[in-house]
Prior knowledge:
Elements: E1 8-13, H1 16-25, E2 29-33, E3 37-42, E4 45-51, E5 69-73, H2 78-87, E6 94-100, E7 105-112, E8 118-124
Parallel strand pairs: 1-4, 5-8
Antiparallel strand pairs: 2-3, 3-4, 6-7, 7-8
InterPro entries: Glyas_Bleomycin-R_OHBP_Dase, Glyas_Fos-R_dOase_dom, GlyoxalaseI/FosfomycinResist, VOC_core
Protein name: Catechol 2,3-dioxygenase
Keywords: Dioxygenase, Oxidoreductase
Amino acid sequence: MKLTGIDHFVLTVEDVEATCAFYEDLGAEIVTFGDDRKALRFGEQKINLHPIDNDVDIVAREPTPGGGDCCLVTETPIEDVERRLRERDVEIVMGPVERTGAVGPITSVYVRDPDGNLIEIGRYDD
């Protein structure tokens, strides 16, 4: 078997609409699929949103809002990312800091979404 990438992952959330609004403000495309389920699309990947009281037939063993930690990649200069976050009153938890991404060095800032998930926003160094 050869795995070639990540298609999507799931965040369990308290309030799907609040989560959609937060990520849409950061540039995500909100998509609706299935039985009116919501997802956040970033390029060719997406994050499916499961409300805490969801009726999806197969889920993580202990789905918990705020238990996520992921990195979203941007082409926007980190200084512009910082400015945009501050304009929207999104607290920067850490950064900018140098990190190692999947394919090389990145500069990142960290924020928390409405459920407390740790979201790294990183830009690959030129």
